[in-house]
Amino acid sequence: MTTILAFLFVLGVLIFVHELGHFLVARFYGVRVVTFSLGFGPKLVKIRRGDTEYCISAVPLGGYVKLAGETSRALDRIMGQIATMEASIAEVATAALDRATTLKQVR
User: Fold this and answer.
1) pLDDT tens digits, 67-85
2) Are 65 and 19 in contact (CB under 8 A)?
3) How many structural domains compose the chain?
4) Domain that holds residue 52
């Protein structure tokens, strides 16, 4: 259980740093950031500061930065591709954790 929690914590930090990079570059170039979210799906917590809504969403396997001017059709296509990739990564990570747990129990 500790391994899973550690994995999710490290994954969360990586996602935060990744999305923060998008956020900072957009702000540097003067692009308005509409939403900064850690996670996908329903928003569990949201705070609005200025023009930006900061969210923590239900599915912690990713995040997104929505920029002003993005079209929803293109964004939906990209988000679908990202969700597919993240599902694949989650499957591989789950299999690796299961394998590690099995090896630990055998010893």
Assistant:
1) 987 666 666 777 777 777 7
2) yes
3) 1
4) 2-106
